[in-house]
Amino acid sequence: MIVRVSKECSELGIFIAHTEVVNLTNGSLHFEEEMQKLETSFDLESLSVDPVVRAYREFYWRLGIDPTKTRPSGEALRRRVARGSKLPRINDIVDAGNIVSVKTLVPIGLYDLSKLVGSPTLVLSKGGERFNPIGSKSETLESGIPILQDERGLVIHVYPHRDALESSVRNSTTSVLVIGAGVPRIERKLVINAVEMVCDLLKRIGGVKTHEIEVS
User: Which residues form the B3/B4 tRNA-binding domain (predicted)?
Assistant: First the structure.
């Protein structure tokens, strides 16, 4: 699958690392040991000065999002465990992405390939697009928002922090598009490594990478 990043998104410093993983057998609690270990590994003090956290926060401000109210996903998950809370247990595929986000602070997107039509493209919204976020009501997007759309125009992601219900990973999911979200001042190697880490975890539940990780 080719995942494209439009010129206007590239000019914002956006880049993504991506691949697909197939032959998955989804379940639950397969990565329990890793999750329990992460839940005792971090403290809050280091987050505010972490250069990765600061880079994603700066990008949020550029988009008009207050990162102290809407945290970048990796930071939000790490804050959760640093405060003594448990990581959410959703299913093995989603849990793999969350594990890597906590470790690297890179936002990871996982999308059910069977729900996508054609090759997705990251573009700036024109305004008026419908978005059905996981856990929230459907909404109409304003213009100028980075969004990932498939070829029929379905918004599957608002970059880099909100995913759509339609393409979300379910217990029945057997193949996924894996995306690591890059922004200015984040090294490409970090994002590529994060996607590779997800793929390594997914191998343990039967996953097979269809091609080497690409950067768009």
Answer: 54-207
